[in-house]
């Protein structure tokens, strides 16, 4: 796993590990398990710490974020609406045009293979978008043309 260049504080991976330990309950265990699945699906994933304390996993753009709430661990896929989800893991933020999320509650299991497939799709989508050449705007014709 690649690490972000954090020059103004601890590495993101350290901050994420600290968050998991601080949770100290099923939410920490769940976030830890999802982190494992993400890194298994994409060994080149980059861990980031953004927006005043949100774990973020990226590869050529954001794959997903991992937030913890009282009753759920939420994994929000930045471009989830563009991903195929035959196992129907997405169960939150379904009304949006771009993002999709998976809310995991205490005692819930997740289909690891289906989750890793979503992560791999997200990476492929990000990489394809990055590889696409940026189109230059056409110049407007002047009166002299």
Task: Note down, in words, how this protein is organized.
By secondary structure, the protein is α+β, with helices and mostly antiparallel strands. It is built from 3 helices and 6 strands, in the order βααβββββα. The protein has helices at residues 12-23, 26-41, 112-131; strands spanning 2-3, 46-50, 54-58, 62-68, 73-77, 100-104. A 6-stranded mixed β-sheet has the order 1-2-3-4-5-6. Strand 4 (62-68) and strand 5 form a beta hairpin. The mean pLDDT is 88.
Instruction: Predict the CATH topology.
Output: Aspartate Aminotransferase, domain 1
- Assembly state of the chains shown: single chain
- How many structural domains can be distinguished in the coordinates? 1
Task: Find the structural class using helix and strand composition.
Answer: alpha+beta
Share of helical residues: 25-40%
Overall shape: globular
CATH architectural group = Alpha-Beta Complex
Enumerate the spans where pLDDT stays under 50 for 5 or more consecutive residues: none
Describe, in short, the structure shown:
By secondary structure, the protein is an alpha+beta fold.
What layout of secondary structure does this protein have?
Elements: E1 2-3, H1 12-23, H2 26-41, E2 46-50, E3 54-58, E4 62-68, E5 73-77, E6 100-104, H3 112-131
Parallel strand pairs: 1-2
Antiparallel strand pairs: 2-3, 3-4, 4-5, 5-6
Helix pairs in contact: 1-2, 2-3
């Amino acid at each position: 796993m690649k690490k972000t260049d954090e020059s103004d504080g601890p590495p993101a991976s350290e901050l994420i590990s600290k968050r998991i330990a601080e949770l100290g309950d099923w939410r920490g265990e769940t976030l830890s398990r999802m982190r494992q699945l993400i890194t298994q699906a994409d060994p080149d994933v980059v861990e980031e710490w953004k927006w005043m304390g949100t774990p973020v996993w990226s590869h050529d753009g954001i794959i997903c974020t991992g937030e913890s709430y009282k009753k759920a661990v939420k994994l929000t896929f930045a471009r989830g609406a563009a991903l195929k989800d035959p196992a129907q893991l997405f169960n939150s933020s379904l009304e949006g045009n771009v993002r999709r999320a998976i809310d995991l509650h205490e005692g819930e299991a997740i289909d690891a293979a289906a989750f890793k497939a979503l992560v791999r799709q997200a990476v492929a989508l990000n990489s394809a978008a990055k590889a696409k050449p940026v189109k230059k705007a056409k110049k407007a014709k002047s009166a002299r043309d």
